Every structure is written in structure tokens, then in C-alpha cells.
Amino acid sequence: MTMNETPDRAQRPGRFRFLRVPLFRLLAINLAAGVTLATLVVGGLLAIDPGGLRHLIFADASPGTALGLLLFGFVVTFGSAAMGTAIMAMGRAADDEQRRGPPAPVAQPAHAMIRARRPAEADHAQDAPGFPHCA
Asked: What pLDDT was estimated at residue 82?
């Protein structure tokens, strides 16, 4: 091999070789989605300024620290939620319509025999509901 020839891509060590593994690629894509959502939420909070949050952050001596901590909290929350959802959805196909687990209970009408009230018992039922003989 001369200096002008480039080695095959499979033989060349790549900086992002781990992104060829489908699981890592799935996690990286969903982490990026979570980071994007977290950035949008923090930007929305700063734009809406609930309770004077924007003024409180930027009036501080180091607003970068406050913004960093706020963004970090949202990145951890939304990033882990997106990655967890992707992992849990991996086991089923998109067109999988079969239910898994025990069958869901189906409500069916229940027939009950009740005794009709007589007019005299109806007056006592208002005094002590549920106890027709208590007066």
C-alpha cells in the first residue's frame, strides 16, 4: 500500500466507532432528542418568565451557573425519559397489535334481585338510609 491509498473503512480506527452499534446509536439519538427538548423547555421558561425566574437568574452574579444547573436538571430528566422509552419500546414491532400479559377484564352486566319498597317503608328509608327497620 502506498501513501496515496487510503485503508478500508472497516480497518481504519474511527473516532465514533461505537455509533455503529445499534443500541448505542438508539440511545444517542434519544439522548439528543431529550437534550433538544430540555433546551426548548428552559428557553420557554426564560421567555415566559414565571414568577420572575429570568430576572432572578440574570440578576445573580453568575447567571451561567444557575442556567447550567437548570439545564442539567432538565437534560437528565428528559434525556433519561426519552432513552428509557426507546429501550422499553424495543421489544415490540410497530405493527404488533397482540396484547401481552393476562387478558383485560371485561365488564359485564350483573343482574340483581331487589325487593320493591312499599310506600310505608319509603318514608322510613329517608330517616335512616340503608336501615329500613331503624326508626
From this structure: 95
Given a cut of 90, whether residue 19 has pLDDT beyond it is no
Angle, CA 24 vertex, CA 18 and CA 28 arms, to 5°: 110
Q: Say whether pLDDT at 11 is over 60.
A: no
Distance separating alpha carbons of residues 18 and 89, to the nearest angstrom: 22
Backbone phi, psi, residue 79, to 5°: -65, -45
Give the domain ranges of the chain.
20-87
Among 53, 49, 83, 91, smallest CA distance to 69 is for 53
CA angle 49, 70, 61 (to 5 degrees): 80
Cell of 6: 487510503
Separation of alpha carbons 76 and 34, rounded Å: 8
Number of other CB atoms surrounding residue 46 within 10 Å: 15
What is the tens place of the pLDDT at every residue in 60-118? Answer: 999 999 999 999 999 999 999 999 999 998 876 655 566 667 777 777 877 777 777 77
Q: Where are the alpha helices (DSSP H) in 6-127?
A: 22-48, 53-58, 63-89, 119-127
